[in-house]
User: Fold these one by one.
Assistant:
Number 1:
Amino acid sequence: MPDALDESPAAPQPEADVVIVMGVSGSGKSTVGKGISTVMGWEFAEGDAFHSEANVEKMRSGQPLTDEDRWPWLESIGDWISGKEASRESAVVTCSALRRVYRDLLRRDRPHVRFLHVEAASDLIEDRMQHRPGHYMPPSLLPSQLATLEPLEPDEPGTTVTNEGTAAAVLDRSLNALGLRKDTTS
Ligand SMILES: Nc1ncnc2c1ncn2[C@@H]1O[C@H](COP(=O)(O)OP(=O)(O)OP(=O)(O)O)[C@@H](O)[C@H]1O
Ligand SMILES: [Mg+2]
């Protein structure tokens, strides 16, 4: 006769881990974010994909977005993250998140969000962006992006990496900085 007390309870499903890869345009967010997604097996989303058509047009024509343009965009990314938290799926999403207020909006009521700030020297970004085909963010927006950037503050969850060296090296440092390094000794 089966004894119900012998049945072990199902292991609790771990909470989601959601990493927002932030930084100015061309800093390497998509490259690092996709790398994290591949290594960790996490879903990846491009924050840019949550922009309205009007925002995309504005950026394509070289006009900086206003905060009024940004709030609905950030809310959409936040909604996506909330879905991941609710289903306890870890994920990685890119979002420039240059200002503290944007980051505060993104993580409000979302306890499993943390940031990875990808920093790169402006001359390196300019050089890389000149060689990037088919992308709507022109290099002329870089100075305004750098002027807007507010680095992570000590009370914000997250960490910063410098985009120097190969993409593989940057990914490696990012995984280490996030404490996601998988054991490669086996
Ligand atoms: N470590 C690296 N070494 C060489 N090239 C790199 C490295 N990291 C990124 N790149 C290249 O630099 C360019 C910008 O990188 P990426 O597209 O990842 O930046 P991004 O922050 O996502 O930009 P955006 O905000 O405009 O989407 C790309 O062409 C990418 O292939
Ligand atoms: Mg990108």
Number 2:
Amino acid sequence: MTSLHEAGSRPPTAPPVDTEYVRFWNEVLAPKFIRFRHILVDGLTRHSEAVFPKLPVRPGDRVLDVGCGFGDTALALARIVGPEGEVVGIDCCDAFLAAAEVDREQAGVENLRFLRGDAEIALPEERFDFVFARFGTMFFANPVAGLRNMRRALRPGGRMAHIVWREPADNPWLSMAKEIVLRYLPAPGDGARTCGPGPFSMADEETVRKMMEIAGYEDIRFERVDAPVLIGHDVRDAIEFQLAIGPAGEVFREAGDRAEARRAEIEAALADATRRQAAAADGIVMPSSSWVISALNPAAGL
Ligand SMILES: C[S@@+](CC[C@H](N)C(=O)[O-])C[C@H]1O[C@@H](n2cnc3c(N)ncnc32)[C@H](O)[C@@H]1O
């Protein structure tokens, strides 16, 4: 996979060293995301398919997808912009990009390329018409830096949209399991390894609006999208997913041997709560809620 450094958008100095968060995505989260791809892609897609038809993307546009993961939104955007347009997907995780490249090739989509890079450090300076991110910006340790880089990747007058989770109370698919696990295990300490601030770091409208203003955006709009998401094909799948990924997974992982010692009790409590959730054709679903935040890169630039 070509790195952003090799692609020439940075001066020819030594390549940047991965941050602790980028190492965490590659070393810890990648195998778990690959294992539970069937849940994650379904869940995340429900929040983008509601807005995709409304995105200001036209045939011929050049689009950047930040934190593109397995590349399914980048692929969808490449189809919208068509052969006259181009999409670049960028992510910091090698395994996700490798999977994305396989899908791109199988789909025979030629106007899409993937780059390996850290959006907080640099993004391609190619003056894109539109910059998109689905559930990626919440992991920026320095959100203003990442959001500013996204704005600088836009042409003057170009727009961006990023999708982030709203507050935990409106996302029981992530928060319920954490509350249960915390009945048995301590909260992670300050030294816990993480992938960044986490899924709810951009839930507060006022805070994110301020960050985006500081990053130089104008015409900042918030749209709420609610959707039921799959949490597992069955109860076992749902429990394994919750103990591997997300806020409950973090508590469980950080507790180490203590967690293993209490695994049976924790799994029983999770199974009990999971059985009470709604059933759908493909498994168990729970409510979730996101913000679609869109904004303009002012024509004057900053
Ligand atoms: C929850 S996943 C979402 C993936 C994809 N956008 C989707 O909706 O399926 C978050 C993604 O952001 C990427 N990511 C996190 N921090 C990043 C950073 N600083 N630079 C680039 N990618 C980042 C992760 O590797 C991961 O693929």
